[in-house]
Amino acid sequence: MLTTRMRRLACISVAAGLVGLLAACGSAPVAPGFYRVERGDTLTKIARDNRQPVQNIVRWNNLSNPDSIEVGQVLRVVPPGGAATTSTAGASAKSGATAEPRSASADPAPAATANAPRISLVWPAAGTVIRRFDGKNSKGIDIADSAGTPVIAAAAGTVVYAGNGLRGYGNLLIIKHNADYLTAYAHNRALLVKEGQAVQQGQKIAEMGDTDNDRVMLHFELRYDGRSIDPSRSLPPR
């Protein structure tokens, strides 16, 4: 039998793996002039390795908090066309924080998503949108309806996670669509597909529920290159 300590360690390992999956599912190479943050990186180290002052990296990526860089985050490390560079290395912003595994709450960097290839989605569930994406407090959209409302795949892909190991998401499905995009479907009452299963756009994959939540709804996320982006830009008008 597993000891309490062994069970705790197993749960920590599962949760960490899911955070990593949400943050950077796949390992698509970044474009020239960009850098993907790795575990242990600091903004100072990234700036030094790319021979740039810290404040240039902060400005080019619109970083409101330089201490919050996270594993999987993609940063511009060369000046965008026409941008001025700062020659001095003394940055006023804090920059010594070590990169942590990426949580699902970070704001997408415009530099990383501005040229994202388009993906065509269908609405993952019927119902009323009660919360929209803002990139900070809301990393997806919330759709409310009755328990058991069908949840469907927003695009064709492969199920890379089906379970409830990530706190705050309840019964969760993650579908990988290609090297760049994945979608996440949280708080389901029931999961109808398994890990490794290929699904088609519009296929029923779950039933809406309230697991790990205080009301019945679907929390739906779209991720590009590991960063949350506004799903409504890829969904048809409703």
UniProtKB/TrEMBL annotation:
Keywords: Hydrolase, Signal. One of its GO terms (molecular function) is metalloendopeptidase activity. It holds the Pfam family LysM. The keyword Transit peptide does not apply. The keyword Transmembrane helix does not apply. Residues 1-30 form the signal peptide. Residues 82-111 are annotated as: Disordered. GO terms for cellular component: cell division site; cell outer membrane. It comes from the Bacteria. InterPro entries: Cell_wall_metabolism_enzyme, Dup_hybrid_motif, LysM, LysM_dom_sf, M23ase_b-sheet_dom. Residues 33-77 form the LysM domain. Belongs to the E.coli NlpD/Haemophilus LppB family. PANTHER family: MUREIN HYDROLASE ACTIVATOR NLPD, PEPTIDASE-RELATED. This is Murein DD-endopeptidase MepM/ murein hydrolase activator NlpD. It comes from Paraburkholderia rhizosphaerae.
